[in-house]
Amino acid sequence: xxxxxxxxxxxxxxxxxxxxxxxxxxxxxxxxxxxxxxxxxxxxxxxxxxxxxxxxxxxxxxxxxxxxxxxxxxxxxxxxxxxxxxxxxxxxxxxxxxxxxxxxxxxxxxxxxxxxxxxxxxxxxxxxxxxxxxxxxxxxxxxxxxxxxxxxxxxxxxxxxxxxxxxxxxxxxxxxxxxxxxxxxxxxxxxxxxxxxxxxxxxxxxxxxxxxxxxxxxxxxxxxxxxxxxxxxxxxxxxxxxxxxxxxxxxxxxxxxxxxxxxxxxxxxxxxxxxxxxxxxxxxxx
Amino acid sequence: xxxxxxxxxxxxxxxxxxxxxxxxxxxxxxxxxxxxxxxxxxxxxxxxxxxxxxxxxxxxxxxxxxxxxxxxxxxxxxxxxxxxxxxxxxxxxxxxxxxxxxxxxxxxxxxxxxxxxxxxxxxxxxxxxxxxxxxxxxxxxxxxxxxxxxxxxxxxxxxxxxxxxxxxxxxxxxxxxxxxxxxxxxxxxxxxxxxxxxxxxxxxxxxxxxxxxxxxxxxxxxxxxxxxxxxxxxxxxxxxxxxxxxxxxxxxxxxxxxxxxxxxxxxxxxxxxxxxxxxxxxxxxxxxxxxxxxxxxxxxxxxxxxxxxxxxxxxxxxxxxxxxxxxxxxxx
Amino acid sequence: xxxxxxxxxxxxxxxxxxxxxxxxxxxxxxxxxxxxxxxxxxxxxxxxxxxxxxxxxxxxxxxxxxxxxxxxxxxxxxxxxxxxxxxxxxxxxxxxxxxxxxxxxxxxxxxxxxxxxxxxxxxxxxxxxxxxxxxxxxxxxxxxxxxxxxxxxxxxxxxxxxxxxxxxxxxxxxxxxxxxxxxxxxxxxxxxxxxxxxxxxxxxxxxxxxxxxxxxxxxxxxxxxxxxxxxxxxxxxxxxxxxxxxxxxxxxx
Lengths: 286, 332, 253
Known about the structure:
The complex is a heterotrimer of chains A (286), B (332) and C (253).
Chain A lengths: L1 H31 L7 H18 L4 H24 L7 H23 L14 E4 L2 E4 H23 L1 H11 L1 H6 L4 H26 L6 H16 L4 H21 L7 H13 L8
Antiparallel strand pairs in A: 1-2
Helix pairs in contact in A: 1-5, 1-8, 1-9, 1-10, 2-3, 2-4, 2-8, 2-9, 3-8, 5-6, 5-8, 6-8, 9-10, 9-11
Chain B lengths: L1 H5 L2 H16 L3 H26 L7 H19 L3 H23 L4 H21 L1 H4 L5 E2 L5 E4 L3 E4 L3 H23 L2 H11 L1 H6 L4 H27 L1 E2 L6 H14 L5 H16 L7 H15 L5 H25 L1
Antiparallel strand pairs in B: 1-4, 2-3
Helix pairs in contact in B: 3-8, 3-9, 3-11, 3-12, 3-13, 4-5, 4-6, 4-11, 5-11, 9-11, 12-13
Chain C lengths: L3 E10 L2 E11 L4 E5 L6 H8 L7 E6 L2 E2 L5 H6 L2 E3 L12 H7 L9 H5 L3 H21 L14 H14 L4 E5 L7 H16 L3 E5 L3 H7 L2 E6 L2 E6 L1 H5 L2 H8 L4
Parallel strand pairs in C: 3-8, 3-9, 6-7, 7-8
Antiparallel strand pairs in C: 1-2, 1-4, 4-5, 9-10
């Protein structure tokens, strides 16, 4: 029983860290830029599919494919920002939501047409044998995913707090007019932020695609959970988002394991409603 | 009735065509599309009250659609209540759900409101799929009886053919549009618009913004309940798809393309989007891609909807009619 | 017909005391001006009176009723209306429709009556339309009634704001910098308008920076500095008050 509990916890934490990564990417876009980007899940999905295509079809090295896949989504995200987000930057939220929902549907279905609906596995160089860590069995891809996730979170945290770009980003999101007057190229900042957020999403997709499967609608639930995590984490708090992801992953895992698998996804929805009602600044926000 | 005077030529043409449609539409498939359009008109007219008039983006309308459909279906199937009772119950239950969900969601700022309405709808979808004893699970519940009109001694009529259903939905559409028309052109409608345009100013003018937003939400959910009830007994089937994402996207697209913030806009949107699959039958595979693409393009380039492009045409026809009337009456 | 009394109104934001024990009285049909350097707390006072902010303590007695902490819409329905420092209008509707919106608290029709378009609803609509026409004449915007509010020049938008507030048939009107963004002739117009409003029995409390306007129309003036009242009296007295002069020239702690 205890072993079960720990296994659930651990697996939940792993999934949670991927959620966390999604949340971290969306924190940039929704938490800081305040763009309600419903297409975030499709960037996650595209990252996975790009890598799948590179590795499985073009036989490119796995790690190289990850880099190329991320690069591809970086460009893609930039194009999306320039052509669909920028024009409505100052429009009411309704517009942004409609546009990103439209994008989401378009990308999902087009991916379905291109790659088909059958879930695919990304071939990877990790040995399939599991390692035993204390009570739990864990496979190497999962460890890789966890380490990469932690690495990205640390990197982003450092980027925002210590680098010049990070400072410019924070200034822009606090007061874009003041930032523009100070000489910051606000348009560029928005572009970079969106692109970086998209790449982080793509990475989450690649990691989850490696551990599990890749299919066109994989972004649907993921994006909703990402929104939940950003809100839980306190809208703009990377570390908060990461830990919220872990909490969500574990809660779902425990819920599925001990209550019922059918309602697993409802856990996150219930949590976000409770958080918004009783602690709207998020679990980790100020 | 003063509202009849306000109708323009275009409106009369559409109304006449609507009533006469079964006379020249013989294909069952085409009739189905018309009925479906009617169903959607009720659904999006309701949703537009929230999105177009109070300016709140609710992504949860499908929850009330499903609640209405399942309530009506369950009541008739298990308790053999009359159709009117089931319909009323569906509207009431959907309205109560709207009250509860709205009371929670409307306290939140717009960004969060959007997400939480969606969250509630998804929870309802999960409940529907998982509570198999009540709802029949993912396969839904077939065998929902058709509506009957029963007045002892006078009428005992079961709706069976497509034409029957068409006129039923047409009556519902007209009632729904009439209620919306009255609502919008009243102090309540002005309160809605005030909330959309400038909430702070609305409050300082005496508008209880939370109360009126909630009211709009409840009315909208009741429209969805009615639509759900209709669909349950028309298709003789309810499925969890009613609660699904695709439902919601279709509604959003109709409102966005047709034009939010007017009564005719969503009607136009419903007609266009319902007819669209017909034209896209060749490209069934690409249908959703086209939907998505359209939504992006329309939002970016025709943000007020196609209805505004139609207004010059409508006005031109109107002045032509007025001139014609004048010439005819001066000649007699 | 209404009077307003502020009693020991205090509000604190974290460590900052924005208003300290503010007390003054505005008598029926008086025009009182609230002045003071930027940041003195004038708009904060307005926000508390109209229910947009809750004070830390203190009372606001409006026509013998303590309205502190009531929500804005309830305060408005008691006849207390305001305009805002930054022009606040319904930009995408016509001038006429915008002022019609202001009629909300003075109309009653409920949902069922509206659906069945009963007689009293119809009469209420007619009466509201007449009132709106009258108000547009009163403020001098009748010629603009079908234009979209956002297309009006800024001076006329300020007038529109006042018209919307008047539509609610206020007993007490709070005007927050009504002359901002106006040229001298527009300011003359606004001054005359404010006097006309008062002669219709409406009590007026205004915040304003333009001293010419303040001295020209106020019965009494209340001066704030750093959240405290430093002077109160007739315009002449205030003009000659040393502390007031020092506050405006700066350097007073």
